[in-house]
Amino acid sequence: NFPLDLAALEVPSTNG
């Protein structure tokens, strides 16, 4: 997961 919710591709867990 990336700290950037581009399009919630994965699970928004590590969202900054």
From TrEMBL:
Source organism phylogeny: Eukaryota, Viridiplantae, Streptophyta, Embryophyta, Tracheophyta
Keywords annotated in UniProt: Chloroplast, Plastid
Protein name per the record: PsbA
